[in-house]
Write a structure and sequence with these properties.
about 600 residues; alpha+beta; D-Maltodextrin-Binding Protein, domain 2; Dipeptide-binding Protein, domain 1; Dipeptide-binding Protein, domain 3; 3 domains; 5-stranded mixed sheet; 4-stranded mixed sheet; 19 helices; about 30% helix; about 20% strand
Length: about 600
């Protein structure tokens, strides 16, 4: 289990957080050990009151479940509303914009065919596949046919436009057709046809073997009712699904209120209806100081700490109920960087992109922004889009990022001068972004401008809806802070949609024939070792071409009040705010908690 490096008051004692966190040199060892107990708790009676909550403290590593969390069916309490952070979505249409903000909403209101396990008993670093709207599935014809047996009796919300009707295979067909025209066309590109032998069976016929197809569906593909698929305008404004919560009110730039769905189909192991909660208050708040203060007043039940000092200082202010946890991310990049617009002739010159990368010092950035979490004798690793556990046995280093991630401003200047730029006639550019705005505006852009006088970049902050729309519509001329969006559960989801010339998420308009060939080859390769070799070639290619610039990321530092049970962040699937919010269906509030 995780080491407790600072405890709260009471019988457990402790003198407060005093430990550090794992740096890049040690993360690999932590990744190889499962930190969470997954065995079922014995007994059919509730645990004693002193075994319900996690002991307050700051933990070095993922936090194992409490005795109560091991058996929610017996220990969960019904009722209450949780209050958690929410990012303002631009719309409710995930087929148009593959964004955390929309995903977060659909995690409350909707379901997929399959899903990844979340919560206190989930492996915090790897995806464990679970049934969702599909009760079971099987592959045949060498992995080119996938049959899903759908759940009977699952109903859409009892509101317009579905009015409580039953979910059927037709909704899956309509949703897949919708996604195939938009943000998930790459997921369903191999699908040549769909068959519906009856209302509760869907068969996908593929043009190639894809053993990971059920895993791929678990990542992004929430099912929409056919009524919303057929009404594009209505789909932008409301979220209606088969999920555990009903969207009661969406207040743009303020938040959304969700109420428990009384007709939700899912039950726990004892047959108790989910969700346990009466509802969720999802509140928009982009001011970190306000979030932090709100955590201490129970306005927000969780908080993502900036660094280890922030985590431990916050604990000193909330010793009675706070649980803090620091552990490594296993997902690929999300917002930690920016991308170039490859339709722009300026950035079609490799030297320009590579020089900017050479002019940036990852080690200095890691110390300034991430508290030195990635410090390593071989240099700080810049988290690339391909999840490193698929490729490396140990946490990567700066060396693994390749030549253009080694700080060399003198060489960078020579390359820019060779490309026709001087300090008197620099390349001027604008970089708009909402995501990563503090790091980009205060550290990244100033560092590149200072180290590379042949470049003059101006940062411009935009709001979240503007950013995601600008990016998804490819409506930027030079560069933009990137957003990878919801994490893929299979490697193909991290690379094909974003890098293939016909990829649906190729926001930077990359058109690289050699890369296209590798991306197609890795999709059809059935030998695991050969496929991994192709992934490594993709890794080398995207690092060499610098279509984006990536930066080191801190450890995940989650904190929450221990009166909220069955809540965890996930190293690959994400934080609660982004991508792990479907665990709300099985959260509960202990007796005496705010919100009850």
């Amino acid at each position: 289990g995780a080491a407790l490096i600072g405890c709260g008051g009471g019988d457990d004692g402790g003198d407060g957080g005093s430990g550090g966190s794992d740096t890049g040199a040690n993360i690999g060892a932590q990744m190889t050990a499962t930190s969470v107990a997954t065995e079922a708790a014995s007994g059919s009676t509730p645990v004693p009151a002193d075994q319900v909550r996690i002991t307050p403290g700051v933990y070095d590593g993922p936090v194992p479940p409490s005795a109560a969390e091991l058996n929610p069916a017996v220990n969960a309490k019904r009722g209450g509303r949780v209050s958690l952070r929410y990012l303002d979505p631009p719309r409710m249409d995930l087929s148009r914009t593959l964004s955390c903000t929309i995903y977060h909403t659909l995690a409350y209101t909707s379901n997929k065919l399959t899903r990844g396990k979340v919560g206190a008993s989930a492996d915090p670093f790897r995806v464990e596949l679970e049934p969702d709207l599909a009760e079971s599935w099987e592959a045949s014809d060498g992995g080119q046919k996938h049959t899903f047996n759908l759940r009977k009796g699952a109903k859409f919300h009892a509101k317009e436009p579905t009015n409580g009707r039953e979910f059927t295979a037709e909704d899956v067909v309509k949703t897949v057709e919708m996604y195939s025209e938009g943000s998930q066309k790459d997921v369903f590109l191999p699908v040549t046809s769909m068959e519906t032998p009856d209302d509760y069976t869907i068969v996908f016929n593929l043009d190639q073997p894809l053993a990971d197809f059920p895993t791929t569906l678990a990542a992004w593909s929430y099912i929409y009712p056919r009524e919303l698929v057929d009404n594009t305008d209505q789909r932008q404004e409301m979220a209606v699904g088969t999920g555990p919560f009903i969207q009661r009110e969406w207040r743009r730039q303020e938040g959304t209120s969700f109420d428990a769905n009384p007709d939700y189909w899912e039950t726990d192991a004892a047959g108790n209806k989910l969700p346990y909660l009466d509802g969720v208050e999802a509140l928009v708040q982009n001011d970190t100081n306000a979030l932090r203060a709100g955590f201490s007043t129970d306005t927000y039940f969780d908080y993502a700490a900036r660094d280890q000092d922030d985590l431990e200082t916050l604990f000193q202010e909330n010793q009675d109920t706070m649980v803090g946890s620091a552990f490594p991310r296993s997902r690929g990049a999300n917002v930690n960087g920016f991308q170039f617009q490859m339709k722009n002739p300026t950035y079609q010159d490799d030297r320009v992109r590579q020089a900017m990368s050479l002019a940036f010092d990852p080690n200095e950035f890691d110390l300034a922004s991430e508290g030195g979490d990635n410090q390593n004798p071989k240099g700080a690793y810049s988290n690339a889009p391909m999840p490193w556990p698929y490729l490396f046995d140990e946490y990567p280093t700066q060396e693994d990022n390749g030549r253009w991630y080694q700080w060399d401003p003198a060489e960078a200047s020579k390359m820019m001068q060779a490309a026709g730029y001087t300090s008197d006639n620099p390349l001027t550019a604008e970089m708009p972004s909402f995501y990563y705005r503090t790091e980009l505006s205060q550290l990244v852009v100033p560092a590149i401008n200072q180290n590379l006088p042949e470049v003059d970049i101006t940062f411009r902050e935009v709001d979240n809806p503007t950013h995601v729309t600008m990016m998804s519509d490819r409506n930027f001329e030079e560069m933009v802070g990137f957003l990878w969006g919801p994490p893929g559960y299979a490697m193909d989801q991290w690379i094909f949609p974003f890098y293939h010339s016909a990829g649906g998420l190729n926001y930077g308009s990359i058109n690289d024939a050699d890369l296209d060939d590798l991306l197609v080859a890795q999709r059809t390769e059935t030998d695991a070792a050969a496929q991994k070799d192709l992934w490594k070639q993709v890794w080398d290619r995207i690092h060499d071409k610098v279509y984006q610039m990536w930066f080191p990321e801190s450890l995940m530092r989650a904190s929450w009040h221990n009166y909220m049970l069955n809540f965890r962040h996930h190293g690959l699937m994400g934080s609660y705010t982004c991508y792990a919010s479907d665990q709300a269906r099985a959260l509960w509030l202990d007796e005496g908690a705010p919100g009850r």
